[in-house]
Give the backbone structure.
Amino acid sequence: MIEINKVCKSFHKLQVLKEINMKLEDGKIYGLIGQSGSGKSTLLRCINGLTVYDKGSIKIDNVEISSLKNAELRKFRQNIGMIFQNYSLLSRLNVYDNIALPMRCWKYGREEIDKRVNELLDMVQIPDKKNAFPKELSGGQKQRVAIARALAMNPKVLLCDEATSALDPNIAETIMELLTEINKKLGITVILVTHQLSIVKTYCEKIYLLEEGKIAAEGESEEFFENPSRELRNLMGMQGITALPENGRNLRIILNEKQTDERLLARMALETKGAFSIVKADAEQYHSGRVFYMIIHVEEECFEKISSWLTEERVRWNLEKEVLL
Ligand code: ADP
Ligand code: MG
């Protein structure tokens, strides 16, 4: 468990973190989003003890990070792995030696290192790249090496700072699939800092939004994106929002996977004899499962019978004035 309480951090006169509160449970995948300069990387660096916070408390499994000094802190930091956008691999070392580096620093024996590095190479699915040098690898492969190295000391927490931001979208997805698999297999807590909202939407269980050094919004992924806060709308930029027709009513209908099999729209048209048009339909993959939704526009006089029909059918719905594209 990571407990962050009223953490503040300033650089000279610039207050970067303003009383941050977060409570992160073990084994979950968290997303931390926010505009560039909002303090995301600073917060990650406070969590892994690279940056000393000015006030407040960060406890990992009840250990206060600011109370640790030198050797103690170095030892404690074994619990926390970190990966970055630029991979931070050593170019003069091959894949094997890059992954072995943390264990060599801690003076592990040759056999133990060999066993672990081979295990890790399998886990990140690049056993054939063992002897390759970083310059011979693609971005996705480099990030796999960085992940293996971050896991070398069996950390409890993995911090990812824009780890997929430099990758093509489909490669970014495969890296996220890998991180999800690792999260499940090892029960490791993952904190994902990214500006890629589609990634947090799909892979994170809970999301925190940082705005000017404060947690401005937080929530479980599905809820967070389905009812976007002002802060989230702000972050997405107004170009993502389209106004819906002002006459009549606009309903958002939300279907879970089971409900999509029931020919809902056809039945709704037949049974209510109400007229409606589909403004938008889409599917979203959330950590909690797949959700289908439709925005339909109905004339005022049909609203009552269509909405009560939906309620009777136990279909989730709500009224919308605008829609995020
Ligand atoms: P983000 O990761 O959300 O883009 P950062 O945490 O990197 O934001 O930075 C937040 C603010 O803190 C920025 O204005 C940045 O310039 C400033 N900052 C970060 N690290 C330092 C530092 N070591 N010294 C001075 N200012 C810093
Ligand atoms: Mg950053």
